[in-house]
Design a protein that fits this description.
The protein is α/β, with parallel strands linked by helices. It has a domain of about 90 residues. It is built from 23 helices and nine strands.
């Protein structure tokens, strides 16, 4: 009775002042309150029954208050533009279920999962063998039974300096003959391995130049900050050419691309970096703007011309350009303007002064240039619904579409229930779209289209949610592009993941200072991500290119080969 009385008084104080003694709602919510011991029936007096019921009500009230406060904090965080607190699931390490129970059972003699695989060290190259004899004296008559191997992996980090002594000779006729350095050095005082290491550390591991200089100094490498910067930026024409070839090949051989952009800094000014790629390649380019003209210019993959052709005229009609300008451009069908200066001069000759009209005409001419250079008219461009990417066969990311519903702030419990119901139906529909991609079917296609209408044309108890769903429904052709094109992805997670390195580098370094530095950052980001997608070691790629060995094939060739293989596999699957 004394124990029950003390527990009752404690919870009574908590109910009156839940923050007493430093206790917070989060702690109360997370409390693992133990169950009270079973009280025999003969000891259950009316007073005990009353105390037990009061204790149960107190616990329920405290936990309910904790949950309400947590919901309110999440809603306040969303209104402030912050993220909700992560939800941590209870650990299952102490629960012996399924395979865990079998592995934790001392009586179970089965091997642990994965133990059937071969040893991790069985394929290692052994650089040094060291025989260790027993410390105890070996008695006479003992027989040698071989060795018990124990492999230790290590890394040797030290400077390795080579002095090339170029022999100098003078011929009888007064001419000088001097030995020549190996071609791989190219007159540099740092070998291919050290040069590759500096590039790898900076671009792959995101080590800043000051830290890289300090590290090399501690290892005995005499190198200045200016020499490190020169290694990172100078004489990289071959890398730039290989990066540019990725986009040309990727656009010509791909059936879809995913795109994204993010902010970046250059010379103290705000700019943007755009990502274009898919599962086989990644391509980055930094610019000062992110409008549709900029995106179409990037898709030209190095071409600078502007074309007025049937594709350009069709775009002008869809965008509603004034008839007087469209009629003026029609006589110039299949006319090419070599560069931006020639195109702008042509617009001036038409007395086209409105910025909107000039923008639409420029977008049309850029689109005409794309088609003239062989880009596929049905190339699918999957984006997060940013307006600059709405060209060609446009598709939308389902993750971004659902995020609009997820970030809605409910005003009451009914709103919260409706949002949860809609989100559940969206993710269920998304799962069925993934299944459809694996095995397209006409009957299933019709059913999915009807389900889409049922989800996004509905009446809930939350008017804001209804308006949002109707707005999403207007994007039905772009969200359901997968029904006509099962080869395209349902999201832009690949672009989001690829561009994350730029965001991290921006936070670490702040931005680039020179145009050459910005170009090198985009180039090596593209090459690094492409190597990862192709399964090529970026370290092996760098050492191969710096040394001039050329054992690693051109990345554009590998991308084209992978895309052709994927296209053949998709065609076989569709049949």
């Amino acid at each position: 009775m004394n124990l029950l009385s003390s527990i009752y008084e404690t919870f009574k104080q908590l109910l009156n002042n839940p923050r007493q003694d430093g206790l917070k709602y989060e702690k109360i919510r997370a409390m693992n309150i133990p169950r009270l011991p079973e009280i025999p029936k003969e000891e259950r007096t009316p007073l005990v029954e009353t105390l037990l019921s009061l204790l149960e009500e107190a616990i329920k009230t405290i936990q309910k208050q904790a949950e309400d406060v947590a919901h309110l904090k999440d809603e306040i965080a969303i209104l402030k533009g912050e993220k909700k607190r992560p939800k941590f699931k209870a650990s299952k390490l102490d629960k012996k279920t399924g395979k865990d129970a079998a592995s934790n059972d001392p009586g179970n003699k089965s091997k642990r999962p994965g133990s059937e695989k071969e040893s991790k060290t069985s394929k290692l190259r052994i650089d040094h063998d060291e025989v260790i004899q027993p410390t105890a004296p070996i008695p006479p008559g003992s027989r040698f039974k071989g060795y018990r191997d124990f492999v230790v992996q290590g890394l040797i980090i030290r400077s390795h300096n080579t002095r090339y002594r170029l022999a100098c000779w003078e011929t009888p006729d007064g001419q000088s003959l001097v030995g020549e350095l190996p071609p791989a050095l190219k007159g540099r005082h740092f070998d291919a391995t050290l040069t590759s290491y500096i590039l790898y550390q900076h671009h792959q591991c995101q080590v800043t130049q000051p830290l890289l200089h300090e590290q090399l100094q501690e290892w005995g490498i005499q190198i200045s900050t200016g020499q490190i910067n020169a290694i990172l930026c100078d004489d990289k024409a071959r890398f730039h050419e290989e990066k540019n070839a990725l986009l040309s090949v990727g656009l010509s051989a791909s059936t879809y691309i995913t795109v994204d952009d993010t902010g970046t800094r250059h010379q103290g000014k705000n700019g943007y970096v755009t990502h274009i790629g898919n599962s086989c390649f990644a391509w980055f380019e930094s610019t000062l703007s992110k409008n549709r003209i900029n995106f179409l210019s990037l898709l030209r993959a190095g071409h600078t011309d502007y074309w007025i052709n049937e594709y350009a005229l069709d775009y002008l009609e869809k965008q509603g350009l004034a008839h007087e300008f469209r009629d003026h451009l029609c006589p110039h069908v299949n006319q090419v303007f070599v560069d931006e200066a020639a195109w702008q001069a042509h617009l001036d000759s038409m007395t086209m002064t409105s910025p909107r009209h000039r923008r639409i005409a420029t977008e049309a001419a850029l689109l005409g240039s794309l088609m003239q250079h062989g880009i596929a008219q049905d190339l699918a461009v999957i984006s997060d619904d940013a307006g600059q990417f709405n060209v060609l066969r446009h598709g939308l990311c389902w993750v971004h579409a659902e995020r609009l519903v997820h970030t809605l702030v409910p005003l009451n419990e009914a709103h919260r229930e409706d949002i949860a119901q809609v989100r559940s139906e969206i993710w269920s529909f998304y799962a069925d779209l993934k299944k459809y991609k694996q095995a397209p079917d006409t009957v299933q296609k019709c059913a999915l289209e009807k389900r889409f209408d049922a989800i996004f044309i509905r009446q809930t108890r939350y008017a804001t949610l209804d308006r949002l769903l109707r707005r999403i429904h207007r994007n039905k052709p772009e969200l359901l592009l997968v029904l006509a094109r099962p080869d395209v992805p349902l999201h832009t997670n690949g672009s989001e993941s690829d561009i994350r390195d730029h965001v991290k580098k921006q936070k670490v370094s702040g931005g680039t200072r020179s145009d050459l530095g910005r170009q090198c950052r985009d180039t090596f980001s593209s090459l690094k991500k492409t190597c990862r997608k192709l399964g090529v070691s970026f370290w092996n790629y760098l050492t191969d290119r710096i040394a001039g060995s050329d054992y690693v094939p051109p990345l554009a060739h590998l991308v084209k080969q992978r895309l052709n293989e994927s296209a053949g596999l998709s065609l076989a699957t569709s049949y």
